[in-house]
Known about the structure:
Helices cover 24% and strands 35% of the residues. The protein is α+β, with helices and mostly antiparallel strands. The chain has two domains: 93 residues, no CATH class; 165 residues, no CATH class. The strands form five sheets. Strands 1-14-9-10 form a four-stranded antiparallel β-sheet, with no helix packed on it. Strands 2-13-12-11 form a four-stranded mixed β-sheet, with helices on one face. It is elongated, with a radius of gyration of 23 Å. It starts with a helix and ends in a 17-residue tail after the last helix.
Amino acid sequence: MTTIATYEAQVADLLHDPNNLVWSTTQLDLYINEARRQLVMDTGCLRSLQTVYLTQNVEAYTFGAVTGATITAGGSGYTTPTVSFSGGGGTGVAATLGLTSGAVTSISFSNYGSGYTSAPAATVNPVGGGSGASITVGALNVNTFDVLDVHIIYGNLRYATKWYPWSIFSRLFRQYTTVQRRPVAWATYGLTQIYVGPLPDQTYQAEVDTIILPTDLSGSTTDTIPAVVQDPIKFYAAYLAKNNAQQYGEAAGFLGQYSKRLLEVAQPYTRRMGNVILQGFA
């Protein structure tokens, strides 16, 4: 069970500084956590299927924001209910509810929030009476580094959507600004957004296959990076320490050991599968 103390001892040993006379544990922790992020970016070893809800007529979904929600139970007897959100690590999400004959039947977001690492919990507040309504929310982790695939769940099927480079996606799916149907394609835009196309014609549950950057280790927290690929971390942290001290020759040696060990314990991950129709596309 690897903790930050485990890495501190390993890196201090490589630097021949077991008593932390040159590099404090605070400095080592910064280097170790940066090395952990670098390892995940190089290997994709922290992979997560995130469950989200695509919202009708919304094409863009931002990392760290709520994507949408589904009404899991409408309840009864409501007159002027409100909805509040808690948890998930973020802030700012806001929405209003729609009613039909006293039951909650829709939710409309005025702000999708930011900074969420998981979906917040939604609470229906029975202002004026009512009970029994429940809502499930979806969100994309703010620490998402890469998106590999998107599947739409429709009925009892899981549809694979096609990935396109942004320029091709935009030409194929964004020319009609009001057409809505089940999305069949997706693309990344910048480093923090995905787009789906065509525009969703209803709420859809989706699975987003992603690589998640690790949160910083501290205290007695156990590392979520699989043990089988942890070994290169100490070499990259030692490289950062030596590089910061402007001892560039030794730094290069540690960086070389990191690269060598990386190839021994893990292969760089395959990102997205291209579409056959794109072969030979200029």
